[in-house]
């Protein structure tokens, strides 16, 4: 792959701006709709992929979103510093709707790198318990928390379990190993404290030699390298390399026989291993926002984990995300989606278990089903794989990202690109600029999609909220409002609104910092923390004055406001 010919320029992260002073405003008169108007831009900017200057580091590595004089306003209302900057830069209606997740690894675990990702639009930081030890993860999680506390971000933390699927050991500390065509390698369950001799790979699963047969195909990391099993010698399995490739530490192993994945004793491995339970305790103690369960097979394990979390952490609300990456998960897809708080289309391992050409249609189906069932959905793996090594994406990668945005997935995820790649910030800015561009195109073309939304409410009261949100989204589109405001306790009404994918941004106001962080995963939601009261009139007045003071709304903006406590809907102009 040649890099010389690539001339793509990447966007600048949003820069801090100086808010104007905070003043109180008169009570807005309600129910005062006015003729349709289009969104305005607060500052000249372009979301074109080709028209951004190179990313600039934050001045002195410090990102101060608000002047000290505004401490009072900060205490009253919190919004993600990066979102605030984006809102001002791109204008009200042009804020990014698609959320971005970055896997944190050796390339991005430092405080400065994490801050650059937050400035660049990272909504969720992901740590994968497959790699690194707990101390390392603790350091990352706390660094993200510190960034939120000190610099005004609301980056949520997601922790993936390792799961008990079969994978290689860590190559005795070597960063990688190259397998060449025709070479014979030994895959062994023998563990070794010291580094293993050449061409011997440790396998973490004791039943490995029993499960495989001569003639089977062994896929490393979803087929990045392939071997054929030639013979078994006790705990050792000798294999010949048939497709050369790079072996990375702890790469997943899949065995294929007669065109499908072998499921022998390994099918009985628990979804959550004993090591995973200890990692989960660690995640609860560190206050992660989401736990993503690898290789989910059924809804049962999700329900089990949810009750475990509820018993362990009174009042805490950790979202449980089901990673769909196996044949069993596909069989039980709908019940798994219903049981979980969100879903990840984990295309890496999924593509190792089913024929690759089936992955795109399954992705589309999952995105659609999740939206119908009101669960956030993440599209993950290999979005910008070439950017692990090169500073610009391939056209095909840009097309893949565009397709996920067009499908209106809630979030896109970087894996190796941000964890161990050479250009994590550039990869993030590609996701950002492609998302903005496709979303804009979609709005300009007025492609309101006619997805029939299923009825998801379990009570009459919920049904009222659902109907309010469906109507509000329809009104927002036909009146061309600038934003929908939703005042929400637990975030549920905000999620129902996000599900409708309205044309305008959704400002979600909640008094809980953890709800606010969790809402950061949902499509189109701009979560604010606001200590609100029962008095809607009062909430609206405060919100308008605080947002006006920060240049985030203007007099005359048309807004629809919803409240889950009052189950109310109002249309008004910002006074
Ligand atoms: N904490 C870490 N320490 C070291 N390397 C890491 C870490 N996290 C990720 N990586 C590297 O980045 C790569 C991509 O990360 P990712 O989390 O997608 O892992 P993965 O092994 O492909 O598993 P998964 O299927 O869960 O995504 C990994 O293969 C690993 O090389
Ligand atoms: C993200 C992940 O686990 C996968 O794609 O396999
Ligand atoms: K994993
Ligand atoms: Mg996986």
Automatic annotation (TrEMBL):
Gene3D superfamilies in the record: Phosphoenolpyruvate-binding domains, PK beta-barrel domain-like, Pyruvate kinase, C-terminal domain
Chief location bin: plastid
Record keywords, A-Z: ATP-binding, Chloroplast, Glycolysis, Kinase, Magnesium, Metal-binding, Nucleotide-binding, Photosynthesis, Plastid, Potassium, Pyruvate, Transferase, Transit peptide
Domain of life of the source: Eukaryota
Entry cofactors: Mg(2+); K(+)
EC number of this enzyme: 2.7.1.40
Keyword check for Kinase: yes
Reactions catalysed, as given in the entry: pyruvate + ATP = phosphoenolpyruvate + ADP + H(+)
Gene Ontology BP annotations: photosynthesis
Enzyme's top EC category: transferase
Pathway annotation from the record: Carbohydrate degradation; glycolysis; pyruvate from D-glyceraldehyde 3-phosphate: step 5/5
Pfam families: PK, PK_C
Disordered: region residues: 1-56
Keyword Transit peptide listed: yes
Domain Pyruvate kinase barrel as annotated: residue spans: 96-427
Compartmental location: Plastid, Chloroplast
Gene Ontology, cellular component aspect: chloroplast stroma
Family listed: Belongs to the pyruvate kinase family.
Protein name as it appears in the record: Pyruvate kinase
Organism classification: Eukaryota, Viridiplantae, Streptophyta, Embryophyta, Tracheophyta
